[in-house]
Amino acid sequence: MGTMTKSVTHMVTAAASAALSVVLAANMHAQAWHQRSSRSPSDATPKVVASRKAHPCSIATIAGQWVFITDVLYTQAGVVDGVAIGTINIGVDGSYRGTYDWSGTGGAALGNNYIGTVTVNPDCTGTVSFHAVGDTYEVVQSIVIARNGQEIWGDFQNPVDDVGVWRAERITGIET
């Protein structure tokens, strides 16, 4: 195998592993939710509400440096398009920037820079909007902040973009 094929194979394997982790986590969450929901509402609800009131999310929750990987991304026609890995820097002002490498059926594109903004709601959901440096096409994604601000999960919103999800893990605290 050539170096490019090994890199793509490694990235697809890593993306598949990350996707499996997300599926397993979602399954565990669903099982836990089912167990909680089988109790009376007075048993489960106050704990959740109190937790959300005590720890609402904001930009400060996710400000810092992150690394991310996408699941295998597909075109709208259902054809495998590729995977991406990279960095995210989130400022306390809501700035969103970083670099990513893309590897897919059409080849590889390394060192792609992007800039944009991120908004965060108190319920730990939000939106990311960004574009490649030198381009004006805006990519919009929904996000969920997970594990007390240590992970971000994202999903593409635009119906003409690739279909897929991504996951980011924190590597440092607040980015200025």
How would you portray this structure in words?
With 176 residues, the protein is of the alpha+beta class. The protein has a single domain (1-176), classed as Quinohemoprotein amine dehydrogenase alpha subunit, domain 2 (Lipocalin, Beta Barrel). It contains 3 helices and 9 strands. The chain has an 8-stranded antiparallel β-barrel. Strand 7 (139-146) and strand 8 (151-156) form a beta hairpin. The longest helix is centred in the first third of the chain and has 35 residues, at 3-37. The radius of gyration is 18 Å and the shape is globular. The model is unreliable at 3-53 (pLDDT under 50).
In short:
This protein has 176 residues and is an alpha+beta fold. The protein has one domain: Lipocalin (Beta Barrel).
